[in-house]
Every structure is written in structure tokens, then in C-alpha cells.
Write a structure and sequence with these properties.
With 403 residues, the chain is of the alpha/beta class. Helices cover 29% and strands 20% of the residues. The chain is built from eleven helices and 16 strands. The strands form four sheets. It has a six-stranded mixed sheet. A four-stranded parallel sheet has the order 4-3-2-5, sandwiched between helices. A four-stranded parallel sheet has the order 12-11-15-16, sandwiched between helices. The relative contact order is 0.14.
Length: 403
Amino acid sequence: MAARKHHIIESSQLFADVPVKPLAHTDADPIDKVEESGLVGMGGAGFPTFKKLTFGKGSETVIANAAECEPLLEHNIARLETDAAKVLSGLTIAMKTIGAKHGIVAIKPKNVHAVRSLQAVLDDAAAGKTAYEVDPNIEIAFIKDRYPAGDERAIVRDVLNNLLPPDAIPSAASAVVMNVESLMRVHNAVVDNLAVTTKDLTVAGHIEGSGYSNDVSLVVYDVPIGLKVRDILEALHIHTPSDNEQILIGGPYMGLPGNLDSTISETCGGIIIGDPEIQDPGPMGIIVCACGASEERLKSIVEAKGAPLVDIKLCKNAFRLPNGRLKCRNPGICPGQAQNIIALKKEGATSVLISHCTDCSNTVMQVAPKMGMRVHHATDAFMRAGDEPIIRAFRKTGPVKTA
């Protein structure tokens, strides 16, 4: 799948007051600076970064997660294109802080410009020409263009060849995984002595009024945390969404329904304005995937489609943790959904709603249509709005090639 087009906008072009807050303790050690900065995992998990670095001490590897896993979202890739030196500086700081010997950037080869920017910085580091300290031995690892390539355990599996059990975290593989924006803001805290007051954001879908077509994602750097969705759409001159259009906070798979008064937080990655749901007479069944939308969101989509709900099935690769959360046993590499499709068909379902990874979506499409069942994916309304192909037919991910 080709890289998506994106346009970068500096927040200073949109807002008169973009907050900057210097750290009070500029002579503190890196972990203390990161703690004072208030940095949390900006990929969506929101775990305090100073705790991740503290718990990660003694790990052998730090991996920069540049998978940009969710479709339509582009802000991490954009940062690598424009600020690769700061990201690699943050990665180097994280490596030194926990005592890791290896640093790796995991990225899809389709993101050619980002890869070239990374390589240019690493070449400069080897020649002693970088403005910041960057370990020249950091590696670039290419991962397949499939969902969910950015899952932490998928990253560890694909980069370190170590499949962790569902209830494990990367430290079990002597690794720490951090997303691109988090690493850039580690640099901001440790080198520039700045607290976290802003968040990079992708705005996509129906962006009429912005001056850009819907096949472009707008990347806004350093949006002030605490702004509302309406503030950002107004600043970008994007039309006010109608009652029929949907607002999603986050990406098409894992995002949550929002509205104009939703607030931008440290973990918010996207604002996507989607189509209304296409109606389906049903009866409809749901298969819940650990890698996709929650059961609650899937049920709300069925209701919006006007279909009676037959039953809810769970992907057989899903594992429920003690806290109730679902984790996939092998993210993105799944055993298939034929059994669930057959069961839903027997219960009277004429259509099925899924939110599966690439692998399971492929198997659903191989089985359900042959049984006369219509297939919907939780991402449909947002992929259509962003002029992207909806997730249906088999798409080969193929061997990983260098950019």
C-alpha cells in the first residue's frame, strides 16, 4: 500500500498562543527531567515515560516504534521527515539512560522520505556532524505494511524475533518500545529543558474548507493540550461536521467517538471526520478482535446501521487479561475466523461487522461472502471519508524490502 499524502502545519500558524513551559530543574538527570516534563506515552497508552525508562533499566534494546499503525494518521512519519535528528537524539538519550546497547527504528519501507531522513542523520552522526548526540550505530529495521504492525508485541516479534505471551511487556524481551513523538519529546525535555504542553495531531477524513482534498492528511505540530476539537477545525477552516458525520478521536481502528467539545489530550493522535454509517437490514453479528475497536464501539456501529444484533463472538486469538482487556496471542498473524462466521450464519446473521487485523480480515472475506453474508469493517466510514480503500479483500503484505 502506498504512503499516504500529508501536509504539515505549524501550530503557530493557527493559534496566537502556543504554550511553552521551561523546566525548573535544568541540571537534573534525564529521568528526573522527563518526569518533571509530564511526558507520557504519546502513542495512546499514556504510561508515564519516566516510569518506562526506570523499569527498563538494564534492557539491551530500545526500539523506536515508527510503524504509524493506524491508517490515515501521519504525524509520527511527518516528524521523522522533518525532525529525525531530535527523534534519534531522544532514542540515544533513552538508550544511555537505561544502559541499552542497541537502538532500532522500526518503520515500513513505504515511508521513503522518513527513511532517508533517518539515514541522513545517522550518516552525519557517523561523521561527527550532528547538532545533537546521536548514536551512529542505531539500526533501521523494516517491518511489513499490515495492521497491527505497531503493537508493542508485534514490534518485538518482528524486530527481535521474539513472540511474547499476551500478558508480557517488552521488558520480557530485554527491550523498551517508545513511539516517535515520545522520543522527540524526551529530547525536548532533556536537551531543551521543556515541559510537555503540546501534542502533534493528524486531522483527516472530510476536511472540506481546509483547501486540501480528502485524500490528504493534515498534520498539525504542537497543538496546545486542552484545546477542543471545534477550536482546531475552526483554525483549519474545516467545515463544521453535520449531524450525520462522525467525529473519531484517534485512528480508525482503535479510536473513540468524539464531538466538537472533545478535548485534545497528551494521548490524542487524530481527529477524523467520517461518513455516516451505511444502513444494513441485518440481522448482524459482531466478531470482536483484540487488535481493533472495542465491543462497545462495535455495538454502537450496529445500532447506527439500523440492524438487529444477533450475537457477539470473540476472535479465537484474543486473550482476556485479569483487568478485562483483550490482547492478541500473535498480533496480526491469526488462525482465521471461519468458525465464528459459520456460527453467526447458523444464528441467523445475514451480515457481519468486524474490526480485524489484516490477516483476519482476509479470512473473513474468504468465507463470509461465499455464505451470502455482507461484511462491514469498523473503519469503513472513516476510510471512505479519507478516500482510502476500505478494508476488505486480500492484500498481500509481501517480503520486506528496503526503501
